[in-house]
Amino acid sequence: MRGVTYRSVAARAGVNHALVTHHFGSIEGLLAATMEWSVQRSIEETGLAGIADFDEAFADSLIATVSAEPELQLFQFEMILESRRNPQIRAMVERLYANYVGTVEEALSQRGLDTSGEASLAIFAALDGLMLQFLTISDATKIRSAVTQVGRLISALEATNGPAASK
Questions:
Q1: Residue 55: in which H helix or E strand, if any?
Q2: How many whole angstroms separate alpha carbon 104 and alpha carbon 55?
Q3: How many CB atoms lie within 10 A of CB 43?
Q4: What are the φ and ψ backbone dihedral angles of 58, each rounded to 5 degrees?
Q5: Cβ-Cβ contacts under 8 Å for 34 (sequence gap 6 or more)
């Protein structure tokens, strides 16, 4: 993260560094565009919008996607850590979380759950933490089981208290 330069990005992309400078305007602009792209791709590829089902197929899809492109999530985790040191990145990270939590909230409301309050944030935080563990510990069996357990907890709350349980 800290070693990102226009020249290194241009070399990797196979273009002139002036083109990268002109297109993004600043390193922060480049990082913001990369962050937006990585979040959208991650949401689409992981099937996060299908979280309403929260079953084994969702867990398998999530793990397969993260396994196929770990750098997508690792970049986001690096940005999150960097936002503690660089206030300019903080707004990007806030948008990252808003996009993810909004996607979870929308998917859960399609399931009929009342997602007002912090339920969507808590559910995304569980998934986020599990994916960080998966990327660092790499025990797919345990992580898959934990992801489906989060789904069972939601189902149990829903069955016990109805849709209002997620408030």
A1: none
A2: 14
A3: 16
A4: -65, -45
A5: 75
The pLDDT tens digits for 133-148 are 999 988 999 999 999 9
Which structural domains are found in the chain, ordered by start?
A: 26-166 (1.10.357)
H helices present in the chain, as ranges: 6-13, 17-24, 27-46, 56-68, 70-85, 87-110, 119-137, 140-161
Q: How far is CA 7 from CA 2, 10, 16, 33, 68, in A?
A: 14, 5, 8, 17, 27
Residue in 147, 152, 107 with CA at minimum distance from that of residue 130: 147
- Do the beta carbons of residue 144 and residue 60 sit within 8 Å? yes
Environment class of residue 98 by beta-carbon count within 10 Å: exposed (0-12), middle (13-18) or buried (19+)?
exposed
Name which of 159, 131, 154 is nearest 61 in CA terms.
131
**Model confidence over 31-89: pLDDT tens digits?**
888 888 888 888 888 778 767 677 888 899 889 999 998 998 998 898 899 889 888 88
